[in-house]
User: Fold this.
Amino acid sequence: MSIIDTEAIRKDFPILERKVNNRQLIYLDNTATTQTPRCVVDSIVSSYYNTKANVHRGVHTLSQEATLLQEHTRERVRAFLNARSSDEIIFTRGTTESINLVASSMGQLFKDGDEVILTVMEHHSNIVPWQLLQNRVDLKLRVVPVLSDGALDMDTFRSLFNERTRMVSVCHVSNVLGTVNPVAEIIAESHRHGVPVLIDGAQAIAHTTVDVTSLDADFYVFSSHKMYGPSGIGVLYGKREWLDMMPPYQGGGEMIESVSFEKTTFAPPPFKFEAGTPDFIDIPALHKAIDYICGIGVENIATHEDGLLHYATERMNEIPGMRIFGTAPGKSAIISFLVGDIHHYDLGMLLDKLGVAVRTGHHCAQPLMHALGVEGTVRASFAMYNTAKEVDIFIDALKRSVAMLQ
Ligand code: PMP
Assistant:
């Protein structure tokens, strides 16, 4: 018996009823994106049918309604993260854009010889934006390795600080290993050195309670599509003192106070970082996604997923030659694995033929793959709507696929 009513939840996700290759879909690619409940889709439709108008610039009713929906969502995100002010909530296109915004803008304050600390388990979107800065300044990237179970090597982390360290940027949860990093400890240690911290929360936000105030995070970023929300939008939480100091990321409408050819002044945060028309259709739908998650309870979701993680891990270990990458205590419900010398791609293809959707490849984490000594893995990841019965079907499909490929 699960702590949450998966049967009722599944009814909210019409896609879970579809067939793939004549079999019932078993969707285990939730790390890449979660599916979308009806209430979120209804919100998108309602915005198109009822309130579509550009925000912030109209006196007419539709524009005012659209603006209210957007700004209520900003306040909803603030409450969800327990941020101090909704001015600290910036809407972006997603985790990737949020990190690019911080790297690009904070990067303008960096000087030759400065250093940024990352970890080897970062997604490419938390590596490449920092590398792009190297075209302009002589920036050194210091990389924290992982231990054999996939936990972060905290001793090395602590040893990497020096007077040139300007930023720490780490994922909350690894999208490959499932490792949950000790972000409170990472932030406290960084602050002892006077260094701000960006937390990439893409894989954490729908699976654990995030309180940016008690964490004392300087930046916290995530994507809506990985938290049952619409695709194409995301959030950057930034502490007001940094946002005031940071130069704008893009120029355009919405982000200015006044413009002349002689001198342009910028609007205060968050608008300073929201150039152009925002995604006023999808933003209110994110509000619905947050309500949906909170209605079930993030901690209940976490407990349910944890149960699936343990059950699936136990059953997967029945298979000879099974290698699971990432076994750190308290890990999230993400299982990356290989079986014997079977290619990850072949396994993924066969599983798909049996209706099971998993991800294969390097998962946008090539440096981590390199550290693990593999080219890629198969990855199964769980969400609130997955069930133990689905795990059983997955294990049967996995056993059949392995037997065919060995
Ligand atoms: N960081 C992590 C840890 C991720 O898992 C992902 C998506 N796989 C991203 C960043 C990038 O997210 P997006 O593509 O939505 O910007």
Notes: The radius of gyration is 22 Å. The chain has two domains: 6-30+297-405, 41-294. The mean pLDDT is 97. Residues 279 and 328 are 38 Å apart (CA to CA).
